[in-house]
Structure formats: structure tokens, C-alpha cells
Design brief:
CATH architecture of the largest domain: 3-Layer(aba) Sandwich
Low-confidence stretches: none
Mean pLDDT: 87
Number of helices: 11
Order of helices and strands: EHHEHEHEHEHEHHHEHHEE
CATH topology of the largest domain: Rossmann fold
Strand content: 15-25%
Oligomer: single chain
CATH class of the largest domain: Alpha Beta
């Protein structure tokens, strides 16, 4: 593999939207009870989910299952994120959840038909998906689960190769106020994007943070990204500016001459 490149995961994401929506509704009711209604609305933000997943690789399948007549207001942000919305009409007479069954069928079908997809992401806290997780792992797939901490079954979370609680996404760091004072307003967006990407790659245990790896990840997060939009002639120039401002530490690879981000400086930790 060429220097600076990494073997990327190819991900398929499946969202049990009804389960998530119920979890968020319960969380909001609890917060309103504890805070006497002062807490803001608790809502599912698909961009936060995708922002974490693209740090792991390329998300090629994005599907969500629900009776979308019930969750009409959520359709637009999901559609804008490129997620295929599978309509599963609610069946009041049956105890079976048709959305769960369809999700499982589609995931297994993809498991057998698309060998290049090596990672499956299931967004739900429902223990009923534990057999699906087991079958995917049996076929050599890496399985990531994601759900709300209070409404996720331990049977599901403990069977996944990795489980991410949605609350962790809420805690993802951005530039703090002290850092922002040292960055011109017009550059805060690009530095936020750079710092969150570097933190994400560190969280994914990448031993060497090549500049090309960082830029590739940023492009997956924001396909329209171009450093020239912020006045930089190259991505290396952006990294050099971040180092000059005292945010990151850079080294040059002696063989290729390309930049490697060693880490954050003390004031960013």
C-alpha cells in the first residue's frame, strides 16, 4: 500500500428509526421532568452519526426503516443526508415489528451479495438484533452498534464488535473559547473541521496521522471541502498554519517529505 494511504473500511448503515425515536422521546420526557421543562428538545442528528462513521471509512449504504407517516418531520434531514427511507406501514394487529424484520433481511442479503462491504452498522438499542449481529460476525463482518445509553439492551451492546452510545457524539470536542480567540473568525470553521478529524483518527487508534489520511477523512465528512476556499494554497499550508498558531505538532517523513501530524500541543489537550 502506498505511503500515507490506509486500508479503509467499507460500511453499510441500517437505522431502526422507530426504536431511536422512542428512546429520544423517553429521554426528553425525563429531562423535562428533572429540569421542569427548561431543557431544549432532544433530537436525533444524523450528521453527528455520519461524522463519526466516516472517521472509520466509506459509508456506501445508508438505510432507515420506519412508518414515515408517523415520523414525517424527520424525513427531510435524513433525505438530505442521502439516506434511503424504507416505508414500513405500522401493523396494529401484529406483535411483530415489520421494520425489524425487513432490516434484518436486507442486512443479511447485503452480507452475502456484497463481499466488499466489511463493516455493518446497526442503529438501535433493541435486543432483537442480537441474532443478526451474531450472523454477520459469523460471516466475517465487523459489526458496530449505536444507540442511546439508557434505552440500549446489554444483550445487543455486548455482542457487537464495537458499540457507540449516541451521548458520546454529543460530547465530541470542538475548539474551545480560549482557542477561538486565537483564530480569525473566517478560519474557525476549517480549524474546527481539522481538529475534530484529527481527534477522530486518534480515537480510531491510527498510529501515524499522514496529512493525506487527514484530508481524505475530511473529504468524506464534507465532500465540498477545499482548503483554497479558506485562502490556503495547499493542505500542507493549512497544517503549517495550525502548527504556527500553536495547535498541532508536525513532522516531515524523511523518505517522502510529506507531513505527519504528531498530535495536539498542550494547550489543546
Amino acid at each position: 500500500m502506498p505511503e500515507g494511504q490506509q486500508e479503509q473500511r467499507i460500511l453499510a448503515m441500517f437505522i431502526d428509526f422507530e426504536n431511536l425515536a422512542i428512546g429520544f422521546e423517553e429521554k426528553q420526557k425525563k429531562q423535562q421532568k428533572e429540569k421542569k421543562g427548561r431543557e431544549g428538545q432532544v433530537a436525533f442528528d444524523v450528521q453527528k452519526v455520519l461524522g463519526r462513521l466516516v472517521e472509520k471509512g466509506n459509508v456506501v449504504v445508508k438505510t432507515a426503516y420506519a412508518d414515515w407517516h408517523r415520523f414525517f418531520k424527520h424525513r427531510q434531514p435524513l433525505h438530505e443526508a442521502g439516506i434511503e427511507l424504507i416505508e414500513i406501514p405500522r401493523r396494529s394487529r401484529s406483535g411483530k415489528n415489520s421494520a425489524d424484520i425487513r432490516l434484518c433481511v436486507d442486512a443479511i442479503d447485503l452480507c452475502y451479495s456484497k463481499e466488499h462491504i466489511d463493516t455493518f452498522v446497526v442503529l438501535s438499542g433493541d435486543s432483537d438484533f442480537a441474532p443478526l449481529v451474531a450472523k454477520l460476525k459469523e460471516n466475517g463482518k465487523y459489526v458496530i452498534g449505536m444507540g442511546l445509553q439508557e434505552s440500549t439492551s446489554s444483550l445487543l451492546s455486548e455482542n457487537c464488535d464495537e458499540f457507540i452510545y449516541y451521548e458520546e457524539l454529543e460530547q465530541d470536542e470542538t475548539t474551545d473559547q480560549q482557542t477561538e480567540r486565537n483564530i480569525p473568525r473566517e478560519l474557525r470553521d476549517v480549524f474546527d473541521l481539522l481538529f475534530s478529524t484529527v481527534r477522530g483518527l486518534i480515537r480510531e487508534n491510527h498510529e501515524v496521522l499522514w496529512s493525506s489520511m487527514i484530508k481524505d477523512t475530511i473529504k468524506r465528512k464534507r465532500p465540498s471541502f477545499s482548503e483554497s476556499s479558506y485562502g490556503f494554497k495547499s493542505f500542507s499550508e493549512l497544517l503549517e498554519d495550525a502548527e504556527r498558531r500553536g495547535f498541532i505538532t508536525l513532522e516531515k517523513n524523511p523518505r517522502s517529505g510529506t507531513y505527519v501530524v504528531v498530535g495536539f500541543t498542550e494547550k489543546m489537550k
